[in-house]
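## Example record

The block below lists the input lines for one assembly entry, exactly as stored, with component labels intact.
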Amino acid sequence: MPFDNGISRALNSPLGRRYYRSLLEQGETNPRAEPELSSEAGEPGPQLTRRDLTALLGASLALAGLTSCGQRPREKILPYVRAPDGVKPGVPVEYATTMTLGGLGTGLIGTVQDGRPIKLDGNPEHPASLGGSGIYEQAALLGLYDPARLTGPVHEGIPSDWHSAAEAIRGCGPRAWFVLPPQSSPLAARLIEQIRLRLPWSRFVHYQPLPRHAVYAAARGTFGRVLETHYRLANARVALALDADFTASMPGSLRMARELGQRRGRNTSGSESRLYVAEAMLSPTGSLADQHLSLQSSRVPQLARAVLQQLDQLGLRGKVRGAAPSASSSTDTRIEAFARAVAGDLARARGEAVVLVGERQPRETHVLAHAINQALGSFGRTLYFAETPLLAPEGGSSLEDLAAAIAASEVDALVILEENPVFSAPPSLRLEHLLPRVPLRIHLTDVENETSRLCQWRLPLSHFLESWGDARALDGTVSYAQPLIGARHESRSSLELLALFAGREEGALELLRALHQSDAQRSEAEWEQRLQAGFAAGSAFPPIDVTLDAEAVSSAVQAVSASTHDDGALEVNFTLGKVHDGRFVNNAWLLELPHPMTKQCWGNAAVLSPATATRLGVESGDVLEIAIQDRKLAVPALILPGHADGALSLDVGYGSAGDGLGHGVGVNAYVLRTGVAEHFSVGARVERTTMRVELALTQEHFRLHGRDYVKSTSLEEYRRAKRVAPEQRSPQRTLLPTVPAAGIQWAMSIDTDICSGCSACVVACQAENNVPVVGKRGVMQSREMHWLRIDRYFEGDVNAPRVVNQPMLCQHCEKAPCEYVCPVNATVHSPDGLNEMVYNRCIGTRFCSNNCPYKVRRFNWFDYSAEPSTPLLQKNPEVTVRERGVMEKCTFCVQRVRRAEQRALAEGRPSAATEVVTACQAACPTQAIQFGSLAAADGPIRRARADGRSYAALHELGTRPRVTYLAKVRNPNPELGE
Amino acid sequence: MAQALLSNAPSDAALNRQLLSPLWSAGGRAWRWAFAITFAGTLLLLSLIGYTVWTGIGVWGNMIPVAWAFGIINFVWWIGIGHAGTFISAILYLFEQRWRASINRFAEAMTLFAVAQAALFPLLHLGRPWFGYWLFPYPSTMKIWPQVKSALPWDAAAISTYGLVSLLFWYVGLLPDLAATRDSASELWRRRAYGLFALGFRGSESGWRHYRQAYLLLAGLATPLVVSVHSIVSADFAIGLTPGWHSTLFPPYFVAGAIYSGFAMVLTLVIPLRALFRLQNVITPRHLENCAKLLLTTGLMVSYGYLIEYFLAWYSGDEYELFQYFRARPTGPGSSLWWLMLVGNVLVPQLFWVRRLRTNVAVLFVLSLVINIGMWCERFVIIVGSLQREFLVSSWADYRPSFVDLGILGGTFSFFALLFLLFVRFLPFVSASEVKELRHELEPEAP
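Predicted structure tokens for the full assembly:
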């Protein structure tokens, strides 16, 4: 009998106890000791009564139902007996924390749902964010849930534990070298001090694959001390950005983007401003430019010199104090003409002008810019100087020093924190050969990669959302990182590992508190208040007065004048793209995100201008072989109008051989570099190979073909006409009854004049709305799922095009073409003006997508939600995870709308339109996106729609979109013409 | 007088023997081979359908913006082919075109089998095919009805009506022949089986009278369907905003195209069939020539449709329409299919002005294939071509079919052929009763 064994017999026995704690207790004997199949061995089996049989039948039927209850979490789960304070199931809690990139902190607000961080946004109070966020801040969350992360310490390939690792650390020799990312953390500073006390010969390499050393070297040379330059764009009427992508990728960009946005917003109301950008690779900032000059990075110093020279001729010489540029100039006429126009404009705007330089530029450009800014009277007005928050701004010891020390066998231990130098360092250092010669090698890393494969100890790195920490923002504001979740794995943060070396037993929180309490004036209440705010108010560094060393300026001028330029030489730029320096290469959201300018996903390419492509005889997708000295790299070409001629741009960070999603995506551009400080390199040889590859591009057509659903104009023209597109906004006659509009009527307005295409909104939308990732093949098949995309168009000459970014999302048409073609009522209109998708009802005919003129609907071709790259834990519980075969699209963040309504209802008051902020709107650094009620008379939407620049895309179709755009109004310099 | 509709004027008994003989033979070697191949192709179709339903519609080449592609092209194409059958049986019957008698049976069967292929696709192309029944107005407990402003519920109604009426019409027409088969079958099981389906038809006067009334009634019912089904199918596109779809021309233009493609398919099928079963005396060159004349007529209507379509695009002055018709179609992605469409549907029918060509069986067979391809291309151009180049330039993308798309298209050919092979093996594919009747009607004309 199948039921017959000791247990069932005991259970059936009338002598058994009624209540029992375990089967063993109940059965009193170990059931395993019973011979199996005992009934067959001759013992009479128990009688199976009718009662028992029906009970068993009933139970098996009921329990069979349980098996269909879906997947249980594999981990052991425990319900709350008493819920911890502040955790209410289903109610999101927000915490302030800090993300550090390149050593500089940005204050963030993390949203936690039932103990899971599900969303990051900028901290509106924090000076480095002001509420905005970029793609890295938005996407960093996903790294927490990366399935490729190391889960525990590994020693020589064998799983180990932190106890043994600590043993190894205690036994570490005195000549320990640390390779760590740039640090601004006060705690790190304290710990490094303590390590130096314990290990006097220890050395620290503050390593960054593409460092900012030139910025500091220039300040040291010009002002005699290392300083940070802070631009105040709100005060700038004319700005010149020299190779500076200051609205998207430079430190402090969130703040600068906000200021630029506000400044440009006043363009059409009398207070005009003008932005000049000169750069090689078209950047988001470049797409905002009123006047753009595509210029090889290696020629930007010449432009700076030419501008200085022009200012000199304009009689601003006295201000530069003797730093007269030599009259001899060999700059080309294009640079000359541009410099003349820019200098005139800058001079006219004296006191309200500023020149910004990117960290990609060599020291000389920065020095020249300081001279120009001083001549323009910018100091204290449009920019100021302050102490840098970085501990070793120029890097401390260098990787070269490390390589030499290893070669000389002078390194007892090598500790690498977070970074992956074997991957990112120039190959000439031969780190992969040198590393194994160090007796003790420890790598603290999130995933196994090139460096950790050469280290005995692989220690798992905590995500910043799992650990306590601190950092200073660019302006010096001390910011705190609070963990939003307990460590998911046996991981530690860099600070905790440094503490181990410093011989400290406490955790990072205790260390931080100790540091806080070391100042007797600070109270416990202040500590809590700081954590709550995420930063210490008033801890920014004060401005510092500087005096310019004229000597430095003249030597910079001479250095630039002396440099010769071979017109035929090709320049290769190493640029920071979506995956930054490679640290986000496993991030599915960033891999899938279209590059803001090239719209390439899942990989990098050699970006080049149409003219250069013609010269080299290549087309997009042709594989090029780039050679710099003896190093070679095969990489596909990608033609981008607006890129500088005679140059290629390559995003670094791809082509990793480490674990995770980024494995083998793209090619590693670092192998072409000759030095750590190299941001570009002149004299590359490029050959076309016979190979061709298909690039994963989300937008393959950039020309408008005379279509006018994107509007842009010049300020001059706008002043004359007062309207950009009167025909694109007039009310339309219709036979259909108009929808009565009562109460809140949701609408959005997007200002394309200040949209740089930085794509923070795209990632924010993806994070908020559980938007799946489809992978490279999916993108190549044109199946990307982004609810919000940024369409980028070029106008005019392909060699000097004008760029317009048009964020495109569901337009929530009042007369929606998708609604009437749905055969099953799966897409319907809500009374408050939302075009709603009813996923449950959708059968996937895709008629709605065919009939959507904006092509914003997305279809679940496969079961994307089951992909491991977008883990379930991250999902926003307020947004349905869509199943295979249904259509989806932007909902105007309906979950936020309804939550606000419910809150208002609970509080017994009418809900206000101002309470709702969509995810894209919250992220936008320039505040280009406005959301609100069309019915609110003084609301932002009415204001935007009353603006002369307002238009509806494809207005003539009569769809009556609830999303309207504000046209781009350029303010080009008439001297430069078109 | 034109060529004879019946040559050799055999006796009733001989005609009966000749037309029912394929049912008694065990199927020749050619039939067996054809059966094996089409059976394999059908298995391929079924496995690809299984793969699609199991994995997701993503195994097709569809994407955004081309959310409809092979599935809908095949659907429209197969539905179009079905039209000739009903046209021949119903409309020509009402117009008393006697020549239809010898080809109407298998043309109706062709209709049924083509509709069967077509009916696969509206279901298969759904993201969640298991909820396909939501397209029908069934009494749902949720009280949700189909959204009748959309053309898709119209489609569901039109196609199911058409399928049902075609089946009935075909079956009613079969009754006298089923009875004749029953009476001449030698084995008991055949007598039983055919007897069951013959519904007790005995050839009595009242039986014939009722039969004729029923047949006439169904012919009357089927006639508007010839026009309505493809009109409604065309509404799937015409109600859309998409440049290339948004046109009031579509219903007549689609109906003409459907009949055109249907007659091409009739020729494609009948030419090998009459050779294989030696039916040259029953399906005479006159029949083929008549089909060719109809191809010329409908071909001219289709060409006129194109002309007006392009004229309307030009006359609208709409930049999106102009781009779609005059830039994207002749030069854009898939433009080779546009040229093929013009060859198949505009140039090829002009050849039928020449009598020598339209009476040459080999030429007719080859041209009928070209027309079939041309009509498939037309649907590709309308559906995929329009979606590839819509309003927003940023969303333009080029369509590429997947191997599943090609496999399913090939699989429906096999399945269609398989059904046809079974049909010619088990049912009289030329209506014996009507041919006999025709013989009697023709007798007075004979010298």
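Confidence is low (pLDDT under 50) at residues 1-8, 13-44, 68-73 of chain A. The longest strand of chain A covers residues 680-692.
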